[in-house]
Amino acid sequence: MTTDLRGLTPAPPEPEHLPYPDADVLDALSLLEPAERRSLQAVREHLHDVVRPRSIDYWNREDFPFELLPGLAERGLGEVELGTASRLYRGLVYAEASRADVSISALIGIHNELIVGTLNELGSPEQKERWLPRLRTFEALGAFALTEPDHGSDIAGGLETTARREGSEWVISGRKRWIGLGTIADFALVWARDVADGRIKAFLVETDRPGYRAQKIPHKIGLRIIPNADIELEEVRIPAGNLLPGAEDFSSANRLLRSSRAWVGWQAVGVQLAAFDVAREYSLQRRQFGRPLAGFQLIQQPLSEILGNAQASLGMMVLVARLQQEGRMEMLHAAMGKATGTRLVRESVAKARGILGGNGVTSEYHAAKIFGDAEIMYTYEGTYEINSLIVGRAVTGVSAFR
Length: 402
Description:
49% of the residues lie in helices and 14% in strands. The chain is of the alpha+beta class and 402 residues long. It starts with 33 loop residues before the first helix and ends in a 6-residue tail after the last helix. It is built from eleven helices and nine strands. The longest helix is centred in the middle third of the chain and has 36 residues, at 250-285. The strands form two sheets. Strands 1, 2, 3, 4, 5, 6 and 7 form a seven-stranded mixed beta sheet that branches. Strands 8-9 form a two-stranded antiparallel ribbon. The chain is globular.
């Protein structure tokens, strides 16, 4: 599948018999059942042919692509966590989404892991009936509101947003920061500390309720398509039934964060494959000194290293998916996948950007866009350092947290 790197004019055809056109050099797709392979191929084609070329303009404008949601829904990307598909298939879907655009993959991943997954696992029958049908088709969007202005890595002990029960209502007050889709979501899943018992619980807060205010955080260097928000909750009143019955302490949030960190590991696979795609395509199209860049040793070596990093990340995540499928995945595994994958991403996208030379610093050639997006991945869903310390604690039995 050839893509014009600038998204402006038809790209020249790929050379005949381009080896490994999908960069699946270790044949990971053979691990899927035939039906899942066909489904993944259809998803990949839509993401590559439709989403990837359109993403540049939205990324540059920091605008959300509502027009792309129906196409994503048609391919089941709003209900990945509700089906019976294998964990490997789900992971590869998330990787292919990242390969097309990291912001779109963040939408798909957060929507499935932290919104649909949370309601399906922890919500009441009434909450599920009201929201899941619309969520699975992207007719409704949710925001996962956990992080606060003064509490990120230490959110478990430092969370300040409060909830108090008054008769048949809960009253929510506090602030949240870096909340994806906070300005456009239909509701937010707000984590707040119950003043009565001190426990952290989750509440479904419709965003049109009085006292809910969200302001977009501008000028990000990456994930520019996703509108992250600062949220203020000023005495927001919600019905008592908006408490998620299965989320009555922080351990519920921790289980969700474990899954979302594994998802970022899959993002790391897809971003590195995207970096390889862009760098290889460019090196075959761009001619210097009378021949394609791809014919130079200084180009072939970083191409090999990018692909090697991608396949190493993929191999790790395949094993994580096996543990997840068997119900044996722990925070150690998710944190290792997230930390290692995003560390390798930094190296891979820098090499890809370098292969494009001067054209690697402008987003129209994709490499700069991928470079900026990768830097966000290194920090969100638990910083690289925090995830590394989670692994260190697991393998030494000694906590470095204070």
